[in-house]
């Protein structure tokens, strides 16, 4: 049981990963503070999650459409 959790894969491909790297760097004094309020960071996280879900839905629907055309 932890209060906070994060994970990251490849900061080259995913903006949330870049953001986590930047925040960790700021906390460890490796780079400048991002000057982001917690509310702004939450909005960014929500937007990223929405985009991820939209991409997943689009991919699933595309596969369904392809299968429907193939079967037809």
From TrEMBL:
GO terms for cellular component: P-body. It comes from the Eukaryota. One of its GO terms (biological process) is miRNA catabolic process. This is RNB domain-containing protein. GO terms for molecular function: 3'-5'-RNA exonuclease activity; RNA binding. It comes from Rotaria magnacalcarata. It holds the Pfam family RNB. Residues 2-28 form the RNB domain. PANTHER family: DIS3-LIKE EXONUCLEASE 2, RIBONUCLEASE.
């Amino acid at each position: 049981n932890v209060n906070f959790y994060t994970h990251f894969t490849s900061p080259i491909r995913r903006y949330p990963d870049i953001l986590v790297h930047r925040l960790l760097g700021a906390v460890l004094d490796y780079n400048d503070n991002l000057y982001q309020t917690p509310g702004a960071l939450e909005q960014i996280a929500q937007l990223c999650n929405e985009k991820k879900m939209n991409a997943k839905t689009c991919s699933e629907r595309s596969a369904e459409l392809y299968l429907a055309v193939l079967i037809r």
